[in-house]
Specification:
- By secondary structure, the protein is α+β, with helices and mostly antiparallel strands.
- Helices cover 20% and strands 15% of the residues.
- The protein has 4 helices and 5 strands.
- β1 (38-41) and β2 (47-49) form a beta hairpin.
């Protein structure tokens, strides 16, 4: 999102905003710095932190975790499939969502859908937006307690696709206490009627 503008000062401002807007309380616990933190490679060919951008950083290597792209059978406590960062709320405002400002980003419905799907997949909820300037609609999506509870359910199951036809797909996620979460995804641009016998 912030790409070449990333710095220690900016990360601290975002961390403060996470507390101010209740994002930390909603169990978002990390700020992911994808690029531009690297100062170079040392004699052992290991990456080290850019001291100009991060003057307080140690010389240790920032560890990164390879994204998991497996099926739901591989997801669970201790190992999560990671479909990538959430773009919920970008609306074409940041460099990573709009090259040279050419794109408007997703609609609010598309952002809601992405967040719900990430919660159903028990995926890491890593936000890719400047939370210092959140609008009310985006805040309502990313702080939705019911969706976060589905995402954070201790059983740790990833939803399975149980129905797919005519641009409709149904996902089912088993939760603790013999409960289930159901998500009906409409992939078309039109409203559709759908009924499901539970």
């Amino acid at each position: 999102m912030l790409e070449e503008e990333v710095s220690e000062k900016l990360v601290k401002e975002i961390a403060d905003a996470m507390v101010t807007f209740g994002i930390k309380k909603a169990r978002y616990g990390y700020i992911v710095i994808d690029d531009f933190w690297v100062g170079g490679r040392d004699a052992k060919n290991e990456l080290y932190t850019d001291k100009n951008r991060f003057p307080s950083a140690s010389n240790g290597i920032m560890n990164s975790v390879d994204q998991q792209t497996g099926l739901e059978k591989y997801a669970g406590p201790g190992g999560w499939n990671d479909p990538d960062l959430l773009v919920t709320g970008l609306f074409g405002k940041e460099k990573s969502s709009s090259e040279n400002g050419r794109f408007k980003g997703c609609s609010l419905t598309e952002y809601r859908s992405q967040f719900i799907l990430w919660c159903m997949m028990a995926s890491p909820r890593m936000l890719n937006l400047d939370i210092r300037s959140l609008d009310r609609d985006t805040r309502n999506i990313i702080l939705d307690k019911a969706l976060i509870a589905i995402n954070q359910d201790s059983l740790g199951n990833q939803a399975s696709s149980i129905y797919k036809k005519n641009n409709l797909e149904v996902f089912k996620k088993e939760l603790t206490g013999h409960r289930y979460a159901i998500c009906v995804l409409n992939r078309s641009g039109d409203s559709q009627n759908f009924s499901l016998n539970l």
